[in-house]
Design brief:
Structural class: alpha/beta
Largest sheet: 5 strands, mixed
Number of domains: 1
Order of helices and strands: HEEEEEHEHEH
Number of strands: 7
Number of helices: 4
Oligomer: single chain
Length: 155
């Protein structure tokens, strides 16, 4: 019997959207035309599960419920290829839904390794933080970091 996978994205994003609205920031969600990084032809990447554009950066939240590093590495590719519209700095909050300390262990090791390589190559074009949420462990930290990012306090 298949179990129905919970869609944690909407649940997690709710508090981030509230912070964006309280600080009078416009935000974009979903996979519509206004939330795409165009590649070539009909190819595109979704520009975050939630994105706030500030005067200095795109503050992006990616929520993972199945693991993986694509939502980290796609920004490396897009920044190097000049695909990110102005402002061209990315502040990424990459959120993994975990139910135990070892959930996504290999994915998280790979994420940390890739981020170290990306930092060396991208310099100050991007800042990324990984947060593990699941019983709310790091959600308050992620919310505080998001607020600082949309207020321009993340350098």
């Amino acid at each position: 019997m298949k179990t129905k996978r919970a869609n944690i994205e909407q649940e997690v994003l709710r508090d981030f959207i509230k912070i964006a609205e309280e600080n009078e920031n416009n935000y974009v969600t979903g996979q519509g035309n206004n939330n795409r990084i165009m590649l070539e032809g009909n190819l595109y990447f979704q520009f975050g599960d939630l994105r706030v554009v500030t005067s200095s950066s795109h503050v992006v939240i990616e929520v993972e419920s199945a693991g993986g590093v694509t939502n980290l590495v796609k920004y490396w590719y897009c920044l190097k290829k000049g695909k990110i519209p102005n402002p061209n700095r990315i502040v990424l909050l990459h959120i993994f839904n975990t139910s135990s300390e070892s959930d996504y262990g290999s994915h998280l090791l790979l994420w940390n390794y890739l981020w170290e390589m990306m930092k060396k190559d991208l310099g100050n074009c991007m800042e990324a933080r990984l947060f593990k949420v699941g019983k709310g462990e790091e959600l308050p930290d992620a919310l505080a970091y998001f607020k600082k990012a949309i207020l321009g306090e993340i350098k």
